[in-house]
Each structure stands twice: as structure tokens, then as C-alpha cells.
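Quiz preparation item.
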């Protein structure tokens, strides 16, 4: 799960595994696998960075770091 911010400043959390596409138009649009679309304050690069961090975190094996 990653925390993002709507344009009105409201924070919310989404499952990064459900992200299908991220676009910059100039606002950042996120399309989910359900075809729902979200617009967030974070840049495309920041959403990708948070998604990668989430993906790495769920694959960590405790005690092997």
C-alpha cells in the first residue's frame, strides 16, 4: 500500500499492485486495473518510487537483511 495525496490535500492509501498506468498531463493521473482513475499531487517519478519501495518491502524475507 502507498500513501498519496488528492489535489484537495486529502491523503489516501491505494494498493500499488493495482496500478496499471501512470501519466503526467500535467497533473499525475493513475489508472487502476479496475479502470478507475485518480489524480494526485505527487509526480509520476514519486508514485513510481513509492510503488517500487512497496514492492521491495513485501518481498523482504525477515532476518536476511
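Solution:
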Amino acid at each position: 500500500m502507498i500513501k498519496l495525496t488528492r489535489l484537495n490535500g486529502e491523503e489516501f492509501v491505494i494498493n500499488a499492485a493495482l496500478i496499471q498506468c501512470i501519466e503526467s498531463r500535467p497533473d499525475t493521473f493513475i489508472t487502476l486495473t479496475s479502470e478507475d482513475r485518480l489524480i494526485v499531487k505527487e509526480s509520476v517519478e514519486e508514485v513510481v518510487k513509492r510503488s517500487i519501495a512497496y514492492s521491495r518491502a513485501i518481498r523482504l524475507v525477515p532476518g536476511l537483511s
